[in-house]
Structures
1.
Amino acid sequence: MTVKNILIVEDEAIIALELKLRLEEMGFRVKSIVPTAHQAVEISKLQCPDLIFMDVILRGDGTGIDAAKIIRRQSRVPIIFLTGNTQLLKEQLLVALQPCQLLVKPANDWQLIEAINFLDCN
């Protein structure tokens, strides 16, 4: 597995930090953590991450889906959506944003690795 530069988009600081630490323990490089859709779009332009972990529901004026739509116009960076709301897993807007994976928070290490490996194969 190659080292990936990852952007985490998560508005809950504790969840973001915990995800960052777990990903770094697995050998990945977390370049940035941002809490809003607007910042996700801006940082993805500047840093060109290899992978984005995106919370679906964010504080502020946009959702993770909104950010992903804009990012998709600029890049084909894979996105792994994270949500605590299992009803959102059926959301057609998420499914349309391929390639992506959908995980329920809190995802365990095995689920994170499986999602990353799935995206590497596509």
2.
Amino acid sequence: MRSVAEILKEIPANLEAGLSDDAVAQSLVKFGHNRLTPVPREPIWRKFLEKFDEPIIKILLAAALLSIVVEVFNQERLIGGLMFGAIVAVLAVGFAHPSLRRWLPAITFGLALVAVAVSVLVGHPAYEGFAVMVAVVLATGVAFASEYKSDREFEVLNARKEEIQVKVTRKGGFTTIPLEQVVVGDLVLLEMGDEVPADGRLLKATDLMINQSLLTGESVPVRKRPASLEDTADGPDHPACLYRGTQVVDGVGLMFVTEVGDATMIGQIARRLSAEEGDEADDATEETDEARIRKKLTISKQLTPLQQKLSDLAGLISKVGYIAAIAIFLALMGRGLVTGSLTSSLGGAAKYALDSVVYMVIIIVVAVPEGLPMSVTVSLALAMRKMTRANSLVRQLVACETIGSATVICSDKTGTLTQNKMRVDRAWWDGQLFLRDTEQWVRLNANDTWPRALEGHGPADWIALNAAVNSTAHLEEREAGAMVPVGNSTEGALLHWLHENGIIYHRL
């Protein structure tokens, strides 16, 4: 991170009045916009193929493939044998190659489709395997379509993140600008609840506490204080350095922006994540800076309770099915030895062994509930559509199950149950109570004894003086001349009250 002195040498920034229009233009040309390069969107085909990675879906694919191969082999030995050898070879190559291993379920799906086509061409359609494939396609297709539509809706919402307003000082006055319009050299006012919009160094601070857990993993806020303009040291541990994405939890401060966009720390980490998108060497034992930024910029892939239950169920079904199939196969082999079916002739023994394998595959296929993935997916898709109609967007299909298990929802009332506005509704001094929207309040506005300038020393004068000079909020003039409080809501309400009564608070 550059020092304040270095920035002052490159652009005509002012530490009191902020940037002029010409200085803003120079800063944009030299340092660019405060815009992060978006993380590359996952291709649609990859999202679709990842749907085959569900535990029960994988069992269904394996059972369908076995059923089709055995059916063809039972009718056409040569073709069935060649098909079995080709399938084993393809799966072996996929398992041996690290980059293909994650796509084994999708490869299995493709092989099953080819096997179904071969069974039709040889005149012996594998109806059982085809039915399982239809169930797989329906389950994965419904889940993919629902989540794809939800992702597009969330992208529209995420685009509004960049519309966050930032409080800055420019041309000697206070104003608010969109986050993307913050440039190097801007003076940014930070207050409790704000998110730091860019990297910078602190010029002024009063009890400023910053939550840097995004970068350091430490949940305890750290106190920040100014340093010299020539200071070049940086890092989250530096008391004067502030970083984009961290949160102000207490106090107020004035920050001088030194890095914007991809040059910020979070921008550099995001670029590294984009470069390593195809790398699977994630460290699950320690949450690094990159892991925390990944959680902020991408969708969480952690298993939900429903996914975990389905995974456990799939594991249990596969174990019980395989154990039962092997037990039945061994029992049939023992029966063949006792009855002489395995010892009569080589051809008879081969036919008996093949029939036993067919029985074993049938047991595995029957043990897998083909309708379970489809029923779960359809139920969640219907729940997602119902929540969307109620203006509740769901990014991941299985999240419907998570929210469906909630018994209590705690919601912030500000902006939800209220208007997110504060105002002075009544004032009291000298034994008199003045109420808004009453004749008393009107008389108060027109009362000659009300101080139009702070020349007197009555109770009203001291109230106005304290509300003005001790405030960290500001009034910003918006369209149609409306004055809107910006900053601390309580202090902003007091300033708005002074403005209503003609007090020129900014001259104090």
3.
Amino acid sequence: MSEELHRHNVIRYWWSKAEDSIASAERELQADSLTFAMNRIYYAAFYAVSALLLDRRISFKIHSAVRSAFHREFIKSGLIDIQWGNFYDHLFEDRQESDYIALIGFDYQYVKDRLKTCKQFLNTLKPLIFSAENIL
């Protein structure tokens, strides 16, 4: 398998994980497992951003490096509106709190709104990945 084909396969893999995470977040929300839903919402965004960066041949394993590269490559350059950088930052903070701080909880409506916005976020990123090289 060529290196380019492998890269495309990994991009598709990360995108599939983003979609799976959204579906999981919906199930967790329906089950009223709000911290787990927030975790899945964040990971949906993280996997989508990872796919977007890999499409530009940029890859990291550390969440903070992915976040930093997303801002540098897409927000500061103006390719993506700053609202999406702010959204991703808030998801990162929500995930940090829910995973590492005891007794943190989220309001149902807050999680529901984050889920809806995350779907919009993925819809914003998808054309940047999949239109240029027809990866899907």
